[in-house]
Amino acid sequence: MLFHLPKFPAEIRVSHLNTRVNEQRKKIVQATASRLELLQLLQQLVKEAKIRKKNNQKIFVLDFKGDIQASAADTIREEITLILATAKAGHDRVVVRLESPGGMVHGYGLAAAQLVRLRDAGFNLTICVDKVAASGGYMMACIANEIISAPFAVVGSIGVVAQVPNFNRLLKQHNVDFEMYTAGQYKRTVTMFGENTPEGKAKFEEELQQTHALFKHFVERYRPSLNVEQVATGEHWYGEDARALNLVDKLQTSDEYLLGLLAQHDVYVINTRKRPTFGEKLGLQAAQMAESLLPTVLNKVADSFAKANSSLLQLRDPKF
Q1: Is 149 considered catalytic here?
Q2: Can you count the helices (H) and strands (E) in the chain?
Q3: Exactly one of 100, 135, 149, 157 is catalytic; which is it?
């Protein structure tokens, strides 16, 4: 986060995708074709470079791989801030490769708000979905000027879910009393250990419906041509059907889309990674394994806690 000190120092890397792909093209031609064909390729690369220089339009590519907490919002918010500070609004473009089955309302609300910053600043935003953008993931995707989906990607699931286990009967069997004190009529509507009342359940359902209404309104705002009531059933669709319902605009993989941009545009991939520790720099495999496993363990614990917490509604498709 730009204005907060991170727990784990990170660094942002910028890669010129044109240079990377062209170097690979030259290696393949050198190994498989004649010298004449290599010269022809070099001439073609010079022509493409002139076209890109004339267009003078940069395309920035970001990646968002979402978990239940939308923790990737911490990195994409910083990447977006740097784009806003350096790129030309109304001229340069942004592409986000998005993959997420959704998760917590507040987490995906923040992630979506970061993308809104790009739209509000005047950037053309394209979102590519190769695998899944469901529920909270689709809430992010709908902000784009154009949504591009792979033919079998999963999109939609415009709904809200909350799963709350209740152990009250188990506690009663063991003669355990559970007492909870609150101030405010609806401070706690349902609980895992107390006896849930019809009034509390009704209020909790009302909160779910309110969140769903906000979700639908948000989608409607950024995709006015979409019949939201038709698709806001919590169902998800694959690419072909999603295109027919106007959930997405085009069927294409992100690789095909970006490859088509390289000849006429300078494409830059921006990604953030955690800086290597001293142990990693020395090549200590134990340190690498421990540090790679720690986020996974923490995410598992956080997911378990979040699923058990009745106050956290989820924009998530439970099928994934």
Answers
A1: no
A2: 12, 11
A3: 135
Q: What is the pLDDT of residues 160-190, one digit of tens each?
A: 887 888 888 888 888 888 887 778 877 778 8
Which has the higher per-residue pLDDT, 2 or 70? 70
Residues in contact with 135: Cβ distance below 8 Å, sequence separation at least 6, in sequence order = 101, 102, 103, 108, 157, 158, 159, 314, 315, 316, 317
Residues 6+ apart with CB under 8 A from 291: 277, 280
CB-based burial, 86-102: b 16+ in 10 Å, e otherwise: ebeeeebbbbbbbbbbb
Q: For 220-226, what is the mean pLDDT?
A: 92
Q: How many CB atoms lie within 10 A of CB 168?
A: 15
Q: Is 88 noted as a catalytic residue in this protein? A: no
What per-residue confidence (pLDDT) applies to 268?
A: 95
Annotated catalytic residue, options 47, 172, 187, 250: 187
Maximum distance among all Cα pairs of the chain, rounded to whole angstroms:
87
Q: Which of 188, 191, 212, 226 is closest to 105 using CA atoms?
A: 212
Evaluated on CA atoms 201, 207, 211, 217, the torsion sign reads: positive
The neighbouring-strand residues paired with 143 are none
- If 0-12 CB within 10 Å is exposed, 13-18 middle and 19+ buried, where does residue 138 land? buried
